[in-house]
Amino acid sequence: MKTTRILTLLLFFVSIHNTVTGQAVFSRSFLDSLQRDTFRYFWELGDNPNGLIPDRYPTPSFSSIAATGFGLTTYLVGVERGYISRTEAAERTRRTLYFFANASQSDQPANVTGYKGFFYHFLDMKTGHRFKTVELSSIDTALLLAGILSCQAYFDQRTPIEREIRTLADQLYRRVDWRWMQARKPLLSMGWHPEKGFIEADWKGYNEAMLLYVLALGSPTFSIEPEAWTTWTQTYDWNAFYKYEHINFEPLFGHQYSHIWIDFRDIKDAYNRQKGISYFENSRRATYANRAYCLDNPLKWRGYSATIWGLTACDGPKDTLINSRPFFSYRARGAAATGVVDDGTIAPTAAGGSIPFAPEICIPALQAMKSKFGSNIYGRYGFKDAFNLSYPSPSSANQSGWFDVDYLGIDSGPILLMAENYRTGLVWNLMMKNPYIRRGLQRAGFRGGWLGR
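Below the sequence we write its predicted structure tokens.
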């Protein structure tokens, strides 16, 4: 009898081991293909004279400087995973940095790429000049620079091309006049137009601008004062949402972008120390709260479940009302104590960009979306941007479901790069070596963890 019980227990533990191991192998295979497919977006579409990455594809579009920043960092993953050679990545990187370093910078409204070291949000894919009348963007410049600085850290060999990459990266970062962007000190403005001056809104509250302030604080040429960080954190909204206490911000991308390049797991600023959590833990809670809202599904949208969830900025079906229910095209969707924007549209990047924070819920969500919707949501470049199962299908009045045809660079990048950080910490480890990032964090009051090493 005793022997039987022992054998039963042994078989039980063996079955548990095999289940866990099988899931781990499945996840590894899934992430391998996801990263490889997503990488193609940046490598294939960035193959042009200026190295610019389009905002979206296949719909013809302008270039997004933020997507280009993501793209530069994806090249490093491509080398490490064997998709491309180091030489290929270095050449593409040098070409891209050379373009930005030599592109026209002036206060003129047309035929320019930037001003005061900043760059316009969108650029014409062919000329590299300002697209229409978009703003000179502080945050999108920061995302581009993060990609540039990751390349500076990675390409550390003494070859002529890698030396040039480091020199160009330094030149691009050092010339940004962060102080000029402080229209209302000590905060940073969201941007500037040559036609009407600074945007009236400043970066306040917890969002993706954490990276922007770190870069501005770390500058050896035009750094802002630490007071900016303190003032910014004073605008945070700490609250509970679906029982998860954290600094609230509705769309998940605001909890993800800065974390792509900076490892916040074991470092804390004064605000963190007061609350007793890290920004990494904050993003984990925000991810769980976002999922909890989708599981509750108070607006009763079709398809939401434990594995079909994720609200963030993304494409949508259309700006319209159907049966008194609003739907949106591109919109910053999200759910937090500060507000809810939810029209039934789910974006894979919501889960994909949060993989390091909560792999146990994010990876199964991505697997379920790919398995359930197949080529409707997943193609040559990985996940298409979004889908909405509640929106009436144009093919039949009796069917529901809208699936995006486009891939978006700023949503594909976080999926690939956060998967890599989860698996190897590649980008985090690179940026730990960057003196500008370290200086910016230290001036913001961060202590502990890798900053102490």
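The domain at 29-452 is CATH 1.50.10.140 (Glycosyltransferase).
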